[in-house]
Every structure is written in structure tokens, then in C-alpha cells.
Design a protein that fits this description.
By secondary structure, the chain is mostly beta strands. 0% of the residues lie in helices and 31% in strands. The chain has no helices and 15 strands. The protein has strands spanning 7-10, 17-20, 36-41, 53-54, 59-60, 65-68, 72-73, 77-80, 82-85, 92-93, 97-100, 106-111, 129-133, 147-148, 165-166.
């Protein structure tokens, strides 16, 4: 089994892969319990960050099938694929698939507030901006429902304007 073409997985989540060994007559090699199959990223879809494959590899086949139960990739991107190899058999490549950000884990100012005269709009080159990130440092560009609220750590001071703000593509 392999990902469907264009299938999307969440960063850090399991990507289930099974590699089946066949003989020259297209029969499953059910008597093979010794061949080791390794998995590696073939095409790294992470841009600009390059994803890292985590999980157990190589895996020894059982009844001609190698089952990978804990593979994951940490960085978002499109067009990832995985290569399977044994060292003696012809390597194979999975269908292309995508990785999207996990749920928001933390946020950071992308554009910090600047010193401003009382009663004036706080501005930065593109306004004050907060970005949501998942556990792996990916921008949560698939999140357009979370809300962000700002507050001050001062007494007798308040904000005017519309708060909280709903994020759009993680920002």
C-alpha cells in the first residue's frame, strides 16, 4: 500500500506504507521472511524547509510484505515521495503526496508593534502581525479559524480596534 496520488498527511502523523515482494510470475513471495526493505525520502517536497523522515527503517518482510507503521515527515510541502530499496532488488518509488501543518502549537509576532504616540495607530511595515506555528515550526497555513487576541501588561491603558482577529492561512 502507498499514498494515493496527491493524498495529504499532517506533519508528524503516520504515513502508512507496505512494500510487497513479487517473484518473476507476479506472485507474492510469501516464503520470504528475511529481506530487509529500507525507506527514504525520494523527492523532498518541503520548500523552503526540507522535511526529515522519521520512523523505523529498514523493516524485515514477513510473508513477503514489509509493513512500515511509524513513518512521518516533519515539514510541510507538496510532491513528496518515498523510495523503497533492498540493496538487491530494483528500487521503487511511491506516488507523490503532500504534508500540511499540524494544529497550532505556539504563536509569534511576525511584525512587532512599534513605539507609537498615544491615540495613534500602532503600525509596522505591514501592520502588527502574529503567526501560528505547529510543533515542527511550520506556519499553520491551513488554519483560518483560530482567533488571536492582544492585551497589554499595563494599567489604565486600553486598545481600540477590532479584537480578537481570526487568522487567515495561519497569520
Amino acid at each position: 500500500d502507498q499514498p494515493s496520488i496527491g493524498q495529504t498527511f499532517v506533519a508528524g502523523a503516520n504515513i502508512p506504507i507496505e512494500v510487497t515482494l513479487y517473484d518473476q510470475f507476479d506472485n507474492v513471495c510469501t516464503n520470504d521472511d528475511t529481506t530487509n526493505i529500507g525507506i527514504a525520502i525520494g523527492n523532498n517536497g518541503g520548500s523552503p524547509a526540507i522535511g526529515t523522515l522519521s520512523g523505523t527503517s529498514p523493516v524485515t518482510v514477513t510473508n513477503g510484505v514489509a509493513v512500515f507503521t511509524d513513518l512521518s515527515i516533519d515539514k510541510i510541502g507538496t510532491g513528496y515521495n518515498l523510495d523503497a530499496s533492498s540493496g538487491t532488488l530494483t528500487d521503487i518509488t511511491s506516488n507523490d503526496f503532500n504534508i500540511e501543518a499540524d494544529a497550532p502549537d505556539y504563536m509569534a509576532f511576525t511584525n512587532e508593534p512599534t513605539d507609537t504616540t498615544a491615540g495613534q495607530t500602532i503600525s509596522a511595515p505591514t501592520g502588527v502581525q502574529v503567526t501560528l506555528y505547529d510543533t515542527y515550526g511550520n506556519i499553520c497555513d491551513n488554519d483560518s479559524t483560530s482567533s488571536v487576541d492582544l492585551s497589554l501588561n499595563a494599567t489604565s491603558v486600553g486598545f481600540t480596534g477590532t479584537l480578537p482577529k481570526i487568522v487567515s492561512s495561519g497569520v
